[in-house]
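All the exercises in this workshop are built on plain-text protein records. A record pairs a protein's sequence with a compact description of its fold. The structure tokens are whole numbers drawn from a learned vocabulary of backbone shapes. Once this layout is familiar, the rest of the handout is easier to follow. An example says more than a description, so a record of this kind follows.
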Amino acid sequence: MALSAPSWRLPIRCLSKRTPIAQYQRRTAASNSNNDGASSGSNPVLEEYLRNNPQEAEKSGGRMQAPEGMGQAGDIANSSIFEDERRAQKQADSEDGEVSEKDGVRVGGVLRDPRAMASILDPNPSAREQWEKRQVIKMIRKGGRLSKEQFIKRTEREHLAKSHNMKTSVKKLGMLARQIAGKPIDDAIVQMRFSKKKIAQEVLKQLEAARDEAVVMRGMGLGNAAKEDAEDFNDSDPSATGSTSESLEEVKATEQKLPPIDIQLKSGQRHTVTDRSKIYIDQAWVGRGPYGQLPDFRARGQINMMRTPWTSISVVLKEEATRVREWEQREAKRQRQLKAKAWKMLPDRPIQIQRQWYSW
């Protein structure tokens, strides 16, 4: 005969008469039996609301009902931070009605109310109006003239690209940043492709992504591409329209006006610019990221936590036209300095007194 274990040795789940599944079914049946969603003891928020507002309990005839805006049992309370937006939307819909297609703004296929979006898009209208007024006054005082920085921003293109954090140190990535700074983007990509550094492959991907972003977002490096496209279209279609031939002539005329120029860089190296729209890396620097942790298991059960560095690299891409302008400014400044320091012959003056040693 098998002996049963004493009751005090049985687990607590076996002693309980109600299993979790039975309890869940009982609660579900109780909540479904009440159509108003106010099952007794299932909504503490509703009970607290009725205790604080006895008038609402009397109006309901002794039966607990969810107040207006609370919804079914288990819904969020009126004091919730998520209830303010819903209550404001319901009030706006009840007062002004639904948003029409004429007055609303459709964002992502959803009709939005511009009055509800104004709190985020334009939180301080008075400050925005004052800023616009100051900008208009500044433009009127200057007569529409742009400053030197504004003129450069409007006439020259540049693109800033920052990479994600890479698992390397600042010293290792800094050497690659100094290696590619000042080089054309294509030469820098070739340098990283054949580099023996492990992190050079990650830098190669970032340079290619930065080049593609500069071409697509800023329209950089499209000087020769426009010429080649026009020539290919003209060669493929002999009966091309006059507009295409005119555009090709304009490109050729521009190239005639801007011949290849030999300039001197800041480092003293000579550089020949054949295409002024070619992209080069003007600046390249590294930034320190967060540190990770890596265990270092030692003798006698000891563990040292090593700090693994993470580093990012940032590059500024510009066109060769910027190099030409900077070189012209440096040459003009040097010529002015030489002209100021040049010796000038004294004017001829008549001799007043002639003595052997001194003149009084």
Observations:
- The beta strands are 105-107, 110-112, 158-162, 261-264, 270-273, 279-288, 292-297, 303-308, 311-319.
- The chain has a mean pLDDT of 78.
